[in-house]
Design brief:
By secondary structure, the protein is of the alpha+beta class. The protein is built from 4 helices and 6 strands; from the N terminus they run ββββααββαα.
Length: 146
C-alpha cells in the first residue's frame, strides 16, 4: 500500500486518513494536508524565528550606521559621541525615545531631544521665530481662560 503522504524532511509516512493528523493542514494540497509533518514544520518555524533574533542586533547596527552616513553625513562613532552628550531630552528632561536633533540646512548636530520635542520643533519649521509665535499664542490664550 502506498502512503498518502511522506514528509519531505523526515520521511514520516501516513498510510490512512487518520495518520494525516501528523501533517500540516494545507487546503490546496491533495487530502488537505501538506507534504511536511507538523514536527518538521515546527522545527523549521522555530529555526526561522530564532535566526531572526541572531541577526537582529547586527541589522539594527547596520541600519544605524547607514542612517548616520546617509542622513547626517557622519560615522556611527560620531553619532554615538553626539548622543552621549546628554542622557535626557534637553527640552523636557524625559529619558525615553531620545533622538539626534540637527539643523536641516547645515546638518549640524544641535542636541539630544525626545521624539516628541524633536517632531514639535520640526512641525514649527525649526525656527525660533515660529516657536516664539507659538509661545506668544499660548500665553495670550492662557490669560483669556483664567
Amino acid at each position: 500500500m502506498l502512503p498518502l503522504r511522506v514528509c519531505s524532511v523526515c520521511k514520516l509516512e501516513a498510510y490512512t486518513i487518520a495518520h494525516l493528523i501528523d501533517f500540516k493542514k494545507h487546503k490546496q494540497m491533495k487530502y488537505g494536508h501538506a507534504t511536511i509533518c507538523l514536527n518538521c514544520h515546527r522545527d523549521k518555524e522555530n529555526k526561522a524565528y530564532h535566526s531572526t533574533f541572531k541577526h537582529m542586533e547586527s541589522t539594527k547596527e547596520n541600519s544605524k550606521r547607514s542612517r548616520a552616513k546617509n542622513v547626517y553625513g557622519i560615522t556611527l562613532e560620531e553619532y554615538y559621541e553626539c548622543m552621549s552628550t546628554s542622557t535626557k531630552c534637553e527640552i523636557c528632561d524625559t529619558l525615553k525615545d531620545l533622538c539626534y536633533d540637527h539643523d536641516h540646512t547645515t546638518m549640524q548636530f544641535r542636541g539630544v531631544l525626545c521624539k516628541s520635542c524633536n517632531s514639535g520643533l520640526g512641525k514649527l519649521g525649526d525656527t525660533a521665530n515660529m516657536l516664539l509665535k507659538a509661545y506668544t499664542y499660548l500665553k495670550e490664550k492662557q490669560c483669556q481662560n483664567v
